[in-house]
């Protein structure tokens, strides 16, 4: 595969054709904030936290879904980007109900970690405090819509790693939310194999093991990564 | 341009303890009402949440006794799961509760009440606080602060965080005591025990010089309630409910936590957000009962540990049947610290506290679960109803300060009666005494825990025709009115 040369934040580098800007940046040791990206699963560019500036484009583009191109000049940490990231993050917090102090993911939450690392000390937007419920019908897992950021990582893990296709996104805009099967209680979703991959995939406290209390949802993402790599490399097939 | 903003303490009436004194035609105080503005949104707020989250949420009801809410909440969860928790988990929860008793009682005795005993009622407020105590008796003040820290240290060793440890969970606890933690406790324990001895000496002197307070600071017949073991031994986390009357007779015994509605009624006072619970068979307000240290020592027959048992014998001699003066809450608190330290000492020899079998697992087996535990201030109830999936449908909390509300009213009335006596005015020396009368109960109101400065008070004297005869407001930082010469009585 042909290599492309480009610059990211004045660093000259080469990346494989077809690689995303996020991958190229990572190789060059540049970290970008991400939320909907999950190693091992394809990207959808849902959260807009990894936005970067590309010279010659007026629009900001998500690094996780933009492929490298020859001669590209990319900025990852401009004033403009920092401003937008802060804004995006604040909007994520304002959209639902995040009360970290009592949350199962407290201390192990990607959204919370981003807030710390981007220096978000307050939210400038009015909290919408919507009334979302908790689905506690599944034997093993619970879903608290109040903490969902609609990153769709659970949906992708469910469809493309487990292959069950239980989880989906329903509704638009502020009404968008994660559903199971045909918008049934999770406990009644026949397609669910109770594998728990969605729970491992979730970056926040929205999906959790039932019975988990404050700060107890520590996830092991490597399991998902391991599964994906093992399948791609056909590690389980012996002859 | 410089702007000066003046904040008048009188306008901050919200944070004040509001007291209404009702007088009869002769101008004598008939009744008193201590109004408490307490935030009650919690019970509603929790509806729809998984019950497993409650041990994380409820400690935030009150920053003053988070451990008590944590433990009662975890117990309510145990009841919903219908499990018996592993023995090690039960001991560990007890250890944390004992530590909470030590730290809370030490704060109440040394920081909040000792300045009154030692420095005198009419010492200007600028000195009648923990700083004044440091000035007068530095060693004592320091020992008191260290005793409180000892309790906090144990809570931190177990729960990891001093405040709001979400460590107890439905089914047990999250982590055991570590051998290092145990050594830290062992090392500190002798100093804590020595401090309690000092406190007992101080208390003996106080008692000898405070006979009037013994008579007027809430000395009246009432019922008492607390948890006791099956054989009547003092309890703080397990056991069942017992009621005794002012003659010391047991009138109800071994009531299961879940059956509390058969003995406790709740009347909601319009003048206050606190619910006033009463002993149901006697009705309201005849069923007035007290909870907390005084009540626990009245209802139990022994402490179960030798040194505290010796003190209990002396304590019981102060009453006929039951010890009825609320001024003796202070003494009861010291005996409970002593007992707590003795029990902690026992646990240091018990290797089960290092066990890793700590958490029972189960689904929803009961749709309703009641958790009852003794908080330092008195019996605490958490009553949860959940749906089939474990989401909360109804939450009822009964806290110690609510249960003592009626007794606090009586105490305030009694003190006021003694100092007002037909004068139609609120005398100056009344405020400090009313403040102390309320402090006997160590109510968990943020306004009562101003370690420095006065409890903000707003006292009204109300005539038979509802006219306000006199009114005094005192902020926690308002200048002190000059004491009239000879006013100290
Ligand atoms: S999901 Fe994350 S950000 Fe949201 S409440 Fe939980 S810890 Fe906080
Ligand atoms: S439940 Fe979790 S993984 Fe799924 S969309 Fe919401 S935040 Fe993302
Ligand atoms: S990580 Fe790229 S848009 Fe979410």
For the termini of chain A, the CA-CA separation is 29 Å
The CATH class of chain B: Mainly Alpha
Judging by the overall fold, what is the CATH architecture of chain B?
Orthogonal Bundle
Spatial strand order of the main sheet of chain A? 2-1-5-3-4
Low-confidence stretches of chain B: 1-15, 446-453, 477-489
The CATH homologous superfamily of chain B: Cytochrome-c3 Hydrogenase, chain B
How many strands appear in the DSSP assignment of chain A?
10
Morphology call of chain A: globular
Chain pair with largest interface: A-B, 17 and 20 residues
Could you tell me the strand content of chain B as a percent range? Answer: 15-25%
Task: Write down the domain tally of chain B.
Answer: 1
CATH topology of chain B: Cytochrome-c3 Hydrogenase, chain B
Measured as a percent range, the helix fraction of chain A is 10-25%
Mean pLDDT of chain A: 93
Walk across the major sheet of chain B and give the strand order.
2-1-14-15
Highlighted features:
heterodimer, A: 239 residues, alpha+beta, Ubiquitin-like (UB roll), Alpha-Beta Plaits, 2 domains, 5-stranded mixed beta sheet, 6 helices, 10 strands, 24% helix, B: 489 residues, Cytochrome-c3 Hydrogenase, chain B, 4-stranded mixed beta sheet, 14 helices, 15 strands, 39% helix, 17% strand, disordered N terminus, disordered C terminus, binds iron/sulfur cluster, binds FE2/S2 (inorganic) cluster
Helix and strand layout, with pairings?
The complex is a heterodimer of chains A (239) and B (489).
Chain A: E1 3-8, E2 11-16, H1 21-27, E3 51-54, E4 61-62, E5 73-75, H2 79-95, H3 110-117, E6 134-135, E7 141-144, H4 153-162, E8 167-170, E9 177-180, H5 197-201, E10 207-209, H6 222-232
Parallel strand pairs in A: 1-5
Antiparallel strand pairs in A: 1-2, 3-4, 3-5, 6-7, 7-10, 8-9
Chain B: E1 17-23, E2 29-35, H1 42-45, H2 54-57, H3 66-81, H4 87-119, H5 130-136, H6 138-159, E3 168-169, E4 172-173, H7 179-209, H8 211-216, E5 223-228, E6 240-244, E7 250-255, E8 264-268, E9 275-279, E10 289-290, H9 293-299, H10 306-316, H11 329-348, E11 368-375, E12 378-386, E13 392-398, H12 400-403, H13 405-420, H14 428-439, E14 457-462, E15 468-474
Helix pairs in contact in B: 4-5, 4-6, 4-11, 5-6, 6-7, 7-11, 9-11, 10-11, 13-14
Bound molecules: iron/sulfur cluster (2 copies) and FE2/S2 (inorganic) cluster.
């Amino acid at each position: 595969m042909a290599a492309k040369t480009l610059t990211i934040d004045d660093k000259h580098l080469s990346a494989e054709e077809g690689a995303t800007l996020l991958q190229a940046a990572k190789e060059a040791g540049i970290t970008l904030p991400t939320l909907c990206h999950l190693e091992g699963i394809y990207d959808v560019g849902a959260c807009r936290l990894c936005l970067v500036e590309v010279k010659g484009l007026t629009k900001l583009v998500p690094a996780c879904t933009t492929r490298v191109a020859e001669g590209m000049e990319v900025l990852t940490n401009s004033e403009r980007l920092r401003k937008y990231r802060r804004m995006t993050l604040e909007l994520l917090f304002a959209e639902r109900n995040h009360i970290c102090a009592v949350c199962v993911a407290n201390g192990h939450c990607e959204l919370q970690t981003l807030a710390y690392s981007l220096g978000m000390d307050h939210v400038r937007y009015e909290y919408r405090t919507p009334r979302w419920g908790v689905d506690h019908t599944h034997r093993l897992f619970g879903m608290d819509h109040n903490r969902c950021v609609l990153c769709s990582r659970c949906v992708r893990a469910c469809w493309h790693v487990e292959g069950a296709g239980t989880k989906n996104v329903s509704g638009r805009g502020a009404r968008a939310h994660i559903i199971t099967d045909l918008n049934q209680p999770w406990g009644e979703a026949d397609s669910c194999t109770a594998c728990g991959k969605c729970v491992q995939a979730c970056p926040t406290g929205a999906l959790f093991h039932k019975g988990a209390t404050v700060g107890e949802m520590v996830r092991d993402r490597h399991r998902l990564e391991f599964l994906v790599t093992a399948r791609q490399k056909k590690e389980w097939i012996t002859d | 341009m410089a702007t000066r903003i003046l904040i008048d303490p009188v306008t901050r009436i919200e944070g004040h303890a509001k007291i209404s004194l009702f007088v009869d035609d002769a101008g004598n105080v008939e009744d008193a009402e201590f109004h408490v503005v307490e935030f009650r949104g919690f019970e509603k707020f929790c509806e729809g949440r998984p019950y497993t989250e409650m041990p994380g949420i409820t400690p935030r009801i009150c920053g003053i006794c988070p451990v008590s809410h944590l433990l009662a909440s975890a117990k309510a969860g145990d009841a919903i799961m219908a499990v018996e928790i592993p023995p090690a988990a039960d001991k560990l929860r007890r250890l944390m509760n004992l530590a909470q008793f030590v730290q809370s009682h030490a704060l109440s005795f040394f920081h909040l009440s000792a300045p009154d005993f030692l420095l005198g009622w009419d010492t200007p407020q600028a000195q009648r606080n923990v700083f004044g105590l440091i000035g007068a008796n530095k060693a004592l003040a320091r020992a008191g602060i260290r005793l409180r820290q000892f309790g906090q240290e144990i809570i931190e060793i177990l729960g990891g965080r001093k405040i709001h440890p979400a460590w107890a969970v439905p089914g047990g606890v999250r982590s055991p005591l570590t051998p290092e933690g145990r050594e830290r406790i062992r090392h500190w324990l002798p100093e804590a025990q020595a401090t309690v001895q000092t406190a007992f000496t101080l208390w003996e002197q106080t008692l000898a010089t405070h006979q009037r307070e013994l008579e007027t600071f809430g000395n009246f017949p009432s019922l008492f309630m607390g948890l006791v073991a099956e054989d009547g031994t003092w309890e703080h986390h397990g056991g069942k409910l017992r009621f005794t009357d002012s003659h010391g007779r047991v009138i109800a015994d071994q009531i299961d936590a879940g059956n509390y509605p058969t003995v406790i009624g709740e009347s909601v006072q319009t003048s206050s957000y606190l619910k006033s619970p009463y002993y149901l068979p006697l009705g309201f307000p005849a069923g007035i009962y007290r909870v907390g240290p005084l009540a626990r020592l009245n209802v139990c027959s022994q402490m179960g540990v030798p040194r505290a048992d010796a003190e209990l014998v002396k304590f019981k001699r102060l009453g006929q049947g039951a010890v009825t003066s609320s001024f003796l809450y202070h003494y009861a608190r010291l005996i409970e610290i002593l007992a707590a330290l003795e029990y902690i000492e026992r646990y240091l020899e018990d290797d089960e506290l290092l066990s890793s079998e700590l958490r029972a697992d189960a689904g929803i087996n009961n749709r309703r679960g009641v958790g009852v535990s003794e908080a330092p201030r008195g019996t605490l109830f958490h009553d949860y109803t959940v749906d089939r999936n474990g989401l909360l449908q109804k939450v009822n909390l009964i806290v110690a300060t609510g249960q003592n509300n009626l007794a606090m009213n009586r105490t305030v009335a009694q003190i006021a009666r003694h100092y007002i006596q037909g004068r139609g005015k609120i005398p100056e020396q009344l405020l400090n005494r009313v403040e102390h009368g309320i402090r006997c109960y160590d109510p968990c109101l943020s306004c009562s825990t101003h370690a420095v400065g006065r409890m903000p008070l707003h006292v009204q004297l109300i005539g038979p025709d509802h006219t306000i005869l006199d009114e005094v407001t005192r902020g926690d930082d308002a200048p002190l009115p000059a004491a009239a010469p000879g006013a100290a009585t």
